[in-house]
Amino acid sequence: MIMPAQLAEIGERVAAALPDIESQLCELRQIYPGLHFTYCQDDDVVAMKPCYQHPQFNLYLVDSRQHCLTLTDDPMIASGVVVAELFS
Predict the structure, then answer these.
(1) Which of 3, 5, 46, 60 could join 82 in a cystine, given CB atoms 3.0 to 4.6 angstroms apart?
(2) What is the pTM of this model?
């Protein structure tokens, strides 16, 4: 479960690390050891609305209840976050 306040905190931490988003993932994994974090380009994510938007990145929620990871919009079942960088 990822609460909205927690997602906002993650977004703030990623924003503070700009422009080096990828390096922030190691710190996020230490701060939130129970969550899975993934980095990609935003155009790699299709058919899902971000749960958190920033001018330089979007955050999406991950559901790992099954054998394969999937995106979800339900924070109650979310077990991770995709940090998707936007390029202009």
Answers:
(1) 60
(2) 0.92
